[in-house]
Each structure stands twice: as structure tokens, then as C-alpha cells.
Amino acid sequence: MDTRIKAIVEAATLLFLRQGYARTQISHIAKAIDVSVGTIYHDFAGKKEIMHFVLKCTIDPDFINKEFERPITDNLFSGVENEIVSLLEQSQSDFAKHLENDIESYSFEALISDAFDILARYAAGCLFIEKNQFEFPFLAKHYKACRRKFLDTMSRYLTIFIDNGTVRPMEYLELTTTLIIEILTWWAMDRRYTSFETSDIPLELAKKICVDNILSAYRS
């Protein structure tokens, strides 16, 4: 792994999420890792290429370990937005699979754990779309649709668990489902990237705290 590429990508990710893609300049990224602007341009052709690199790593975490010709150009990222949409749709399909197959052996605890893992796995990409939706309307449109499907799927699971007595009854099912998802989202995504106080909490501990509290609050 090229340590400077890694440093550039990590710094850019935080800046894109905290102050937005449009407001982030190459000079901001350079300052964050204490290198010159020229050094950044030695590695990347521009800000767009860095952004696409960040999104590509969401799809393929091992992408950053490859060897790259410098500067990295956008030729490497042809079709990356369509890849992201396909990934979101496949992730949603995988999340819903127990509704059709083995719901009897699927537990409330497994549901919350799986939901946390999905959100954590794609945290950087999802947050990037959320924070920069006006600059990237194609991704935002599909992301919103997937978020809606995620909510509907979670509601369907919870309805089944309520009916079989695993989860306590909820007067406002959709709103409570939204609350559960927002709790999961904060601990799986925002905690690491957009919160200044909790970014150093290990993922495993964050998951334990999040899952334990949701189970305690809603299990029958």
C-alpha cells in the first residue's frame, strides 16, 4: 500500500464528508496531511479523481492496495457511479433475503447485527452521497430509493417479530423503525466520519453498544 495515497484518500474522505465536496480544495487536502499542493497533483490529476478513488474504495476496499501510474486519472473510474448503484441494490436484496427463505430461523438480534454491518461496510460512500446530494443527483436519486427500501424491509422484519412475540408491539411502527435505523446509522457511519468526539471508538465496541441498547429497548 502506498502510504501517501492512503493519507490523501483518508484526509479527502473526512473533508468531503465534513465540509462537502464543493467546498473542499486540493490545498485543504494538502494541508491536512502536511504536503504541498504539487505533491497531491503528482499523485492525482485533480479533486474529481480523488473523489472517485474514495467511492471506488467503498465498492472494493482492496482497491487502495493496487499499484497505480501517477498521476491517477479518471480513466480508472469509468462507470463507477453505476457500480455504486448496483452495489446498493444488491446489498438491499441481500438484506431482504430472509423474508423469502428462512425467516423462522432468523432472529431480531441477527437482523440488527446485519443492518449495522451493512451500514458500516458502505459508510464512507453512503455518507458522501448524503452530504453531497446536490452535486451528485444521479447517486442521490438511487440512494434515496435504496434507503426507502431499507426502511420498508426493516419494517417488514419487525412486523414479523412483533407478530411472533420476539419484539414488543409498536404504536408507530414506521417512525420507530426510522428511529432504529437512525441509531444504527449514527453508530455505524457518523460516529467514525462526521462526529468529532467519538471517531476513536473501535467499530466492534460501537456495534456492541448500539446492538445491545436496541435489543434492550425493543425485545419483548
TrEMBL record:
<dbReference type="InterPro" id="IPR050624">
    <property type="entry name" value="HTH-type_Tx_Regulator"/>
</dbReference>
<dbReference type="InterPro" id="IPR009057">
    <property type="entry name" value="Homeodomain-like_sf"/>
</dbReference>
<feature type="domain" description="HTH tetR-type">
    <location>
        <begin position="2"/>
        <end position="62"/>
    </location>
</feature>
<dbReference type="GO" id="GO:0003677">
    <property type="term" value="F:DNA binding"/>
</dbReference>
<dbReference type="InterPro" id="IPR001647">
    <property type="entry name" value="HTH_TetR"/>
</dbReference>
<keyword id="KW-0238">DNA-binding</keyword>
<feature type="DNA-binding region" description="H-T-H motif">
    <location>
        <begin position="25"/>
        <end position="44"/>
    </location>
</feature>
<protein>
    <submittedName>
        <fullName>TetR family transcriptional regulator</fullName>
    </submittedName>
</protein>
<dbReference type="Pfam" id="PF00440">
    <property type="entry name" value="TetR_N"/>
</dbReference>
